[in-house]
What does this fold into?
Amino acid sequence: MTSERLTGRLAEIVGADQVLATASCAAYAVDDHVPKAIVFPGDAQELSKVMKCASSERLSVVPWGNGTQIGLGGIPARIDLVVGLKRLARIIDHKPGDLTATVEAGMLLREVQASLRPSGQFLPFDPIGYERATIGGILATNASGPWRQRYGTARDLVIGIRIVHADGTITKGGAKVVKNVSGYDINKLYVGSLGTLGIILEATFRLYPLPAVEHTWIALFPTGEPAACAVAQILHSTIVCTRVELLSSVAAQPVGRQAGCAFPEGTVAVAVSVGSVPEAVDAQIAAIGKLCRREGAVAGFLVEGSAQDSLWSAICNFSSASTDGRPWATLKASVLPTHVVDTIDHAETLARNIGLRSAAISEAACGIVRLYWRGAPGVTEPDLISIAKGIDELRHWVVRHGGSLIILSAPSAIKAAVDVWGPVGAALTLMRELKQQFDPFGCLSPGRFVGGI
Amino acid sequence: MEKRRIVQELAAIVGPEWVISDPDELTVYECDGMTYLEKAMPDVVVLPDNTEQVVAVVKLCGREQLPFLPRGAGTGLSGGAIAVAGGVIIGLNRMNRILEIDIPNQRAIVEPGLVNLALTQAIQDHGHYFAPDPASQAASSIGGNVAENAGGPHCLKYGTTTTHILGLEVVLASGAIVPIGGKTLDCPGYDLTGLFTGSEGTLGIATKVIVRLLPHAEAVKTLLASFHAIDAASEAVSEIIATGIIPSALEMMDRHIIRALEEWLHIGYPEGAGAVLLIELDGPAAEIEAQTKQIKQICDRCGALDLRIAKDEQERALLWRGRKGAVAAVGRITHEFYLQDGVVPRTTLPRVLREVEAIAERNALVIANVFHAGDGNLHPLICFDSRREGELQGAIAAGAEIMRLCLSVGGSITGEHGIGMEKIDFIPLMYSPDDLEAMRRVRAAFDRSSRCNPGKLLPSSRSCSETTISYRPHRVERDGLAQRY
It folds into this structure.
């Protein structure tokens, strides 16, 4: 189908003003692949019709929330159409007494929080770039942040879902109740499937009450080892934390700068939040402070109020917090909690060898390590192939230690040289089988997922 | 004879002592914890010792085109472990080893036949426990908990089984061994672990389970609040949640249960109590103290007759004794009962319970209610006497009405017992033909042959006709030896 005919067909469904073509498409390129058209359906029926039209023409479709995580995923095999979900942006239902809410995929997380806040509730997502992230994007990429320590990830929070399938069929999974074992727990299949099985239309979440008080203790350590020991001690204690973050010395500096607290050069920072009633927060923060000192912290201080907000904002938006050196790749390693510091050290060594600096921000108690590889000041910029090799080498190390490593974002040339996802083993056959069942013509985000799915 | 040949082949795989084909011995396997449906006899039961033997058995079933299903302790309540199509039951009870305990990383790797409570017992000296606590936890296997995505009173705060399962090794109907998920979080690819958990043995056989372990809380406090009526108790439930407290358990019992318990165990509920709430809090001591005060105020405001706070472990056990004995107590006041399992949004509880009462009246039955109030998970016990004409049909009709009622307020027809055989004809009330088609695709991706636990979870075609199911309570249940909730 020609671009003109395609935009004509789409305009019939959504109206001409909701279709972009030609020059405007460049802003929606995925790994330098520019789509033929962008379409913004206004409701579920329009989205369904768009998909019906696209599948009848065997067009490849990539869903788009606000593009904050579009860097995640392999280079698309083809991309004809981007389906923008920004008009599907309502809270469909919020039942404060049931602590549940049903939200359309295109709604910004920020706006969801604003509308829940008057009820003293929130949806505990704080992934990278959360200020601009949409609900659908967070679910499709299974994005998470520091709050996962206490509240888990999308798989734990989604209780119901509505999906538009490749052929336009709309189905639901789950219900509006927190406990439900009727049929397969199909919500889990769509979370993290990166638009390869269907397009998420809306989701129902279990919500949490905002804690009465939340404080953060920051402890600074001379090296990673005692910092990791402190985290392990906290993890095995009776302290209930909402967030536990370990920042490598390279990461701690820019985060401290942005949050308005100066961390001495070379120190590793551990930030731990506790949310509860005031008495319990005070008691637990005191226990954390004592424990960190015992493990060798050189300094420690309490952060609350707006300072606390800026600290966590700087942690979650680290890529914009750090301005030194050009960003080359953002990686996410999932390792055992006992391997966090070794992973950070190993990444630093490998990055240094190719002339980069590796900053690490880690949900240490969960074993999640985000690595930001940037150019080092005064060092010649490396070639992309060496970076790809460095990533591959790090992945081998992580996999050998039982973990996994994915690329969250990198230039296409790096992605072309090293697999974004890494190995998934014998499960790949099952995943391909699922893809075949749900999208037999390979129309949904082809090439972006594991094993080229 | 064909069967003899197959039995011999199975014996060659697992050893003759681990194959059961004698009809008398097979009767143990003709049903599981749920006998509301017709029983069904497997052709043969085989008890493998390891993954390789499971693979060999499954491959044999493939070659002979035999249906097969996994079975743990057989405590499931929806008939998931009944060989409705005959074939081979693969009992996993011998595969009950703990393969790895990794306290520093708070993980364990176990075999599916391990009894739930045995894992907690093995790690309690390390100050950790395995959180899922279905009522059957002293008997049910972790593999069975995975298959059913088992719940329990404490999943209100800690989540159902799926929250605690990080990875699996599964044997597919093809005989392929597929590790899914892992010891680390966020494994790349589709969340097959999440999809497999709760799949009721229809996607394959889990042969290894990687679980999350939790450290014990600093403090636990158990409270018992009594009210005149269900409405006031429900209001207290809503207020507790609205205050921002997430109790580790929040359980309610109605006047029928209270009466049955008083007659049997003499718990000492206050005179005139029409509903009691069992509330458990756990966490940091200072938090529990503050929350106890808040709950006291809420109970006062909602007109509680009495609030009892357990002073020690002994009193805590006493307060739980009533709750744990509730179903068995009902067994003493009725000839038979049909245990339902449905979920409604918490705020609809007063209305839904009034409706349940109306359903009881319409069908001239007593329906007793004991349930996980915090997450809206109802367990109506529909009392009947099958010797009296029409009561059995009335009980089944009332069960169906309750399921429809749950759906009408946006809930679910099962919160923790599963679809199994019991509700296979009711799942089309909850999901459209297209919704079910998506589930069928999942099944097809794992098992194109549909030989893995056929006749469970999904109706075989797009038709959604309701068939009459006959109900018979289990012997042990009638005798008050086992309980269901």
Q: What stands out?
A: DSSP finds 16 helices and 20 strands in chain B. Residues 462-485 of chain B have pLDDT under 50 and may be disordered. Residues 344 and 451 of chain B are 34 Å apart (CA to CA). Chain B touches chain A through 94 residues (CB under 8 Å).
